[in-house]
Known about the structure:
- It is a single chain.
- This protein has 142 residues and is α+β, with helices and mostly antiparallel strands.
- The chain has a single domain (3-141), classed as Alpha-Beta Plaits (2-Layer Sandwich), CATH 3.30.70.
- 13% of the residues lie in helices and 25% in strands.
- It has two helices and nine strands.
- The protein has helices at 118-126, 132-141; strands at residues 3-5, 24-26, 36-38, 58-60, 68-69, 75-77, 87-93, 96-105, 111-112.
- A hairpin with a 2-residue loop joins strand 7 (87-93) and strand 8.
- The longest helix has 10 residues, at 132-141.
- The structure holds iron/sulfur cluster (SF4) (2 copies).
- One iron/sulfur cluster is lined by residues 3, 18-19, 21, 23-24, 38, 43-49.
Amino acid sequence: MTYIVTRLCLRDTACIDVCPVECMVLGEPEEEWPWLYIDPDTCIDCGACVPECPYEAIFPEEEVPLEFEAQPGIWINDTKELLPDGQSFEGELDGLPVKLKNAKQLEGGEQFDLTEDIMPNYDFYVLGPGYDAIEMGEAETT
Ligand code: SF4
Ligand code: SF4
């Protein structure tokens, strides 16, 4: 098993430091990899990251909701391809600074199959940059 991050992730990185095996990596480039991703081969299923997430974006793989119903005002964050009406956002959400390239605030009641977000967590480490994204992120901030 592993834990999975979904499109509810708003990239604040609040979870990263608690992971005992350092297997959580912020996606880069953000346009292609908009969330944070968990390395399924390294995750030890400790669950420590779940309560750290202010947006309840992390689930055990078996518990990722098939029919997730949005509460009013929540945000989703995804690629332009999958969220064509998203927009960039920079500001405070729940008192936390957030900066996103393609996100959308929801009215509430929208339904999503969040299991679609499982495969990108695997793909990030197989097809995407994986741990190299750490250096890519550092290069962007310097
Ligand atoms: S469940 Fe534990 S090991 Fe897995 S990503 Fe979360 S903190 Fe890291
Ligand atoms: S704490 Fe939640 S929202 Fe923040 S980076 Fe981690 S998974 Fe994403």
